[in-house]
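for the record, two folds in this file. i put them one after another cuz i was lazy. first one right below, seq on top, structure tokens after. the second one comes after a little note so u can tell where it starts
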Amino acid sequence: LGWRRDTAAVPLLVPLLSDTDATLATTTASALGRIGSQDAVTSLNAARENSNPAVRLAVLEALLRCAEDRLSAGDDLGAAELYADLFHAKVPPTIRTAAWRGWVLSDDNQRPGLVVKALSGNDEQLRLVALKLVRETKDAQLVKVCLRQWNSLPALAQWAVLDAHLQFGTEALSTVRTASKSPHLAVRIAAWQALADLSDVSLIPALTRAAANGEPVEKGAARDALARIHGPGVREAFLANLNQAETTEKAELLRSLGKRGDTATVPVLLQ
């Protein structure tokens, strides 16, 4: 009956939710979850406090299934209501985390606030899911809200926001500049790596300073970026900075020019 999504069967199935046979009750909960009608949801909600833990879990999983089906069918509002209700209820951590994820995906208005709160909060499970969603949703509004909270975000969250913004191309340059000044080493390294692909010549001096004075791992990332950065004006930017750089930075620029194998710079270097 569940696989057939037979809504007419709901009144017949409801009494079986409270059957003393746990196997029968859990199977009934699963069937009602597949049917997913409003009557099925109402019945499942009424059975959430079943004294049998196995039945209670089956009921909660069935409600998640109802929410997922609504989201798949385009009923974002209906899905969000179900997910939010489950999230705020007294439920096991796995159910709560799944409900939170569904709520974020189904409620565009609540998404930025929910994600930022999770990124800077103490709930490790929600934070891990939030980090993944930031990268996967490609939500420009979410990125903007996260950027407004940049300084309060931990390292992994800043890194995720940077990765998310990079999906929008050169628009992310301002975020890369911000990330290059982060107090978190991993975030700065990610910024240097991104620069090689975005080819912003204005940041060659910052890259050179990182290559000359950064921490060992950071030096490697900056050197790699200096060797790979490409595009109009890059050669000229290298040579202009070579004339102005400190000794250690000049050495890094010369090292990079050698790695780049740009023969057109040879006459200038020989002067």
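(here's the note) second protein begins now
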Amino acid sequence: MKKIAVLTDFSVRAENAAIYALHLAQYLNANIVLYNSFVIPSAEPLASQVAWPMEDYDQLKGENEKCMELFTLKLKRELSAFSDNDFKPTITGKCHFGHLTAYLDEFVADNQIVMLVMASHQKGFSAMMLGNHLTEIIESTALPVLVIPEDRQFNKLNKIAFATDFGKSDLEVLNAVKDLAMPFHGEVMLAHICEDPSSQEAKHNLDFFLTQVSNKINYPNIYYRDVVDQHIKSGLEWLVDNVAFDLLVMVHRDKGFFTKLFNNSNTETMAAATHLPLLVYPETGAIITTGNIKKQYSSI
């Protein structure tokens, strides 16, 4: 059975993300795997500059496994709120010594994972995209990554916004997003940010893409809207601030994509925090190189 992996550091944010993932897994008929990676502080590059106490591996491992046990029990108590007729995901936990990204492919392949879930560590849309570990994880996995802002409670996915630039992989991603929307009978809004939607090129690209959608995506609740803006970043911010939806979907195009897109060295930091979950899909090309994962791409 397919599984959703929740990356956790046992923080309050991580607990909230895990509860969100649990409720999502109920609708998707998926099980939950909690995953924690840890390192001994003395093994870190900056350890010589910090007065770290020497941690014993066995002690640290035991402490993390105890935390995982308590974290798992707390999450299992959430299942008591589910009705008897609801699908109830099984919940397991795993602790691993070493940096997460170094073992991510191995962990995913061994556990039939179809999605990674993690908590955001900073507020604000731009800050969230450049937060601790997030960009590194997105750029090192061939799976979709769901990022849950702190304090975000689970809501049914009645409307999903897919920010598309009509890229070659977007049709395949849309098919996966459709599968995500179906259990909720939700709408999928295709949002395209463009400076001049009335230009011949823009009209041609739109007509071609929507024709492909009509021919290849069998789902009636898909519609399109323009977001008129010169810049993708400000267009996304406008979309988040002015249109009501439950989940934002984006495609990670290449290494450094989000760093370049949301680097605010030349712009003001976004003032308001976003409370929307963000689902980031890898570009199809990243999937092709990991054949054992490719079949999971549209099965969420």
